[in-house]
Hints:
The protein is an alpha/beta fold. It is built from ten helices and 13 strands. The chain has helices at residues 22-25, 32-39, 53-68, 92-99, 116-129, 153-156, 215-236, 254-263, 275-278, 285-295, and strands at 2-13, 17-20, 43-46, 77-81, 106-110, 135-143, 161-173, 181-189, 197-199, 211-213, 246-249, 304-311, 315-322. α7 (215-236) runs parallel beside α8. The chain is globular and about 60 Å long. The structure holds oxa(dethia)-CoA. Residues 30, 34-35, 38-39, 114, 153-154, 157, 215-216, 218-219, 222, 252-253, 256, 280, 310-311 line the site of oxa(dethia)-CoA. Its main location: cytoplasm.
Amino acid sequence: MTRRAVIIGVGHYLPERVVENAEFEAKLETTDEWIRSRSGIERRHFAAEGETTSVLATHAAKAALADAGCDADDIDAIVLATSTADFTFPSAATMVQAALGMTKGFAFDVQAVCAGFVYALSNANALILSGQAKRVLVIGAETFSRIMDWTDRSTCVLFGDGAGALVLEAQNGEGSADDRGLLSTDLNSDGRYKDLLHVDGGVSTQSTGFLRMQGNQVFRHAVEKLASTANTALDRANLTASDIDWIVPHQANIRIIQGTAKKMGLSMDKVVVTVQDHGNTSAASIPLALSVGKLRGQIKQGDLIVAEAIGGGLAWGAVVLRW
Length: 323
Ligand code: UT7
């Protein structure tokens, strides 16, 4: 028998305000056509004033708990992936813990930018496999609208706000790739590339800063590194790309998503795509896509899923799981 971290609930939350590409045409030298054709993005959600990352995360967490049929008391740990926590400290995760009325267990944030949810899943899996937790709430939540330079057309049209969450539970499997739950993970980073995608401020520089990106440089790394990490993770689970039911990629750019699928020899009807409606929500994009994919009827119990992401660091990785 093998201990597995099995997904028993999923949920998401998107702020009410939807901003169509056309809204940027009035303020910047850009067009709906440019944004759509270069990124695939048509609209995104922006959080309301005072609607912070932990608020979005709490909504998503409640939806995932309801889907799992669990109370906050049933949860042993919260792992929250974000680069846009409400405060320098405490962690957004402990704020969600309090908002859920959870008085036991432990909670912490993971910061790996757009790869954050993959890193959080890998950490949550380790907590479950090592016996430190039986049920873990894994959340990706971001308010990237708060770190946009609204005069920089090359970045501010690309990002959005949102949150998604999963509930993982320790269950016994057979130890084969037919088991439900997380089957393998692969994490990577290379800090030499920090200037390609970063925020030019932070606590130690006593500023907040804005997101800066050399988009075409990041693009060049993305397809190759995403296909490679996905294949490494599949290899670790003794699976190949032909076993995949769904790729659930980080939703940064439809051209990166298409390029990665092509490199893996998969057609786009095996890919869950939400980038048109959410934009790039960084660590929130994979759990959002998992939740929306389930609601659309795409993702079903028993499906083999590969989630992969790359972002600032550079940091990238993949998770293979059976839903
Ligand atoms: O989530 C974390 C990881 N991030 C990513 O994966 C993002 C990766 N990068 C990308 O998605 C794409 O590189 C972008 C969507 C950011 C840009 O697409 P691109 O095809 O790489 O365009 P580019 O950066 O090479 O820019 C092409 C042109 C430039 O003009 P010139 O220099 O050719 O005259 C830009 O100034 O497009 C111009 N441009 C715009 N034009 C209209 C840049 N932003 C805009 C805009 N509207 N909003």
